[in-house]
Design brief:
The protein is mainly alpha-helical. It is 76% helix and 0% strand. The N and C termini lie far apart (57 Å).
Length: 201
Amino acid sequence: MKPHFIFLFNLIALPLLAQDGSGFIKKGNDYYKEGKMDDAVKAYDKATTGPHQYVALLNKGNALYRLKKYADAIKTYTQATALANTDAGLRSAAFYNTGVVYSNQNKLEESIEAYKNALRLNSNDLKARENLQKALLEKKKQSGGGGGQNKKEESPKQSKSRLNQNQAQNQLDKLENKEKNTQQRISEDKSQYGTSREKDW
């Protein structure tokens, strides 16, 4: 799983680069491509208060992720998701990236919630949908192996999390069943249409 990355090139005239921070983003992107993640973070930091702060924060989070500074990456992505004036589709990328970080740490409940948030903002994000399904399946595998005693020892918080995951899985199952039923109806309609035409002849 790779996080979303935004390159900011050719969006603004060169004389304005120093004023709005996009020059620092470009410099950060160059460092990122060269594998100089610490330098990239420093460059992105200089643009996190300008008009392109969302791009700076998202890319800074990606550099922190590459440095394996997962808590800092999540904190940075959270800052990006909180920017109210940012397009919902862009904010969903920050939630998606948060999900990737949590998935790689095997924090499935957190990753599931992050992918859901990404899909709430951008229902067309196929990567988020795919990763959500993978996380749900992994969570189901992990929770399916326990016996009766484990259930008794669960804390209310764990029980609530499991319920939320089960609800999400039930919704996915319903969607799959609905799709199967639709496919079945389509094939039945085709066969009915075919036989009714034969009767008309």
